[in-house]
Structure formats: structure tokens, C-alpha cells
Amino acid sequence: MKHMRRFLAFVILATFLFLAFKLQGPGTVTPLKSPIDKLVVIKSDRKLLAYSNGRLIRIYAVSLGKQPMGDKKMEGDNKTPEGKYTINHKSHYSRYHKNLGISYPNNKDRREAARLGKPVGGEIKIHGLPDNLSFIGKLHLLYDWTAGCVAVTNDEIDELFQIVPIGTPIEIKQ
Known about the structure:
This protein is an alpha+beta fold. It has a single domain (35-173), classed as Beta Barrel (L,D-transpeptidase catalytic domain-like). 25% of the residues lie in helices and 24% in strands. It has helices at residues 2-24, 107-116, 154-163; strands at residues 38-42, 47-52, 55-61, 83-91, 99-102, 125-127, 150-151, 169-173. An eight-stranded mixed β-sheet has the order 3-2-1-8-4-5-6-7, with helices on one face. The longest helix has 23 residues, at 2-24. The termini are far apart.
């Protein structure tokens, strides 16, 4: 029984290390210099697409809200909203490294929350990981963990922070 537990612990550790290595991937190959003029999040694929001059130039894997399926209806539902928004601010001061603010809620979102008699919420961001957990890297992709935001690694939010101007349109699709 003792050997079986050791073997099981070894298998779990080996699996964890394999996933950590596999998810880290080769990293960013070429630094982006062109400003991004459009972002698209495809929730079902867990992808953030970055465009410059109509050309797809980068794809980021993302984690979403804890309840990723369906559109955000109200504060606290842990869903990532769907619709057309803009990047409306940037912040170095965040619980999650850096962030890009998304202009949620729009008028449609406000009407839906009002129809339900619930608060609409806000503070939806594209953000990195907490600074004290940055070592997790791409392992954060193993599950959806945000309260409705779009999460990338700290290196990726650093890159996006530099090349995504305020006012950039972002569409979030199922």
C-alpha cells in the first residue's frame, strides 16, 4: 500500500510537471510593435485575437469567468459579458498585475439587468495574474477562475498594455 501511494504521488507530480511544461510553450517569438486596433474574444475557444490594420497578429489563450457559458446578466453571476465594447482605461494598479478596462456595461447590459431587477455590475477587465502568483504562468488556463474578466499571463498583459490604445474596440463572442 505504501508503494502504491508513492507511485500515485509520482504519477500526479509527473502529470503536473508535464502540463506545466506543455502549457508554457515556446513563449512569444517576436515582440509586437504595431498598435492593436481591434480585439476579439471567442469565449467558446478561450481565445483573445489581436488585430492590426485588419490583420490577425496574435492569439492569446485566456481564462474567463467561473461560469463562462452565456452572456453576463448581472453583477455576481461570474459570467464574461458578450457584445461590443471598447478598451476604456489602463491601470498599473490592480490586484492582477496590470489591466485593460472593458467598457462594460453598455446600454443593452443595463436594460437586461434592470429587467431582472438586479445590479448590472462592472469592472470587467483583461488582466494578468496576481503578482504573488505570476509563477503559475499558463497553468491558469486549466480552468476558468475570474469573476467575469478575461485573464492572460503577466507577460501577455505587459505586451497588451504597451500596444493596445485606449479606445480600441473589443468584441466578446460566445
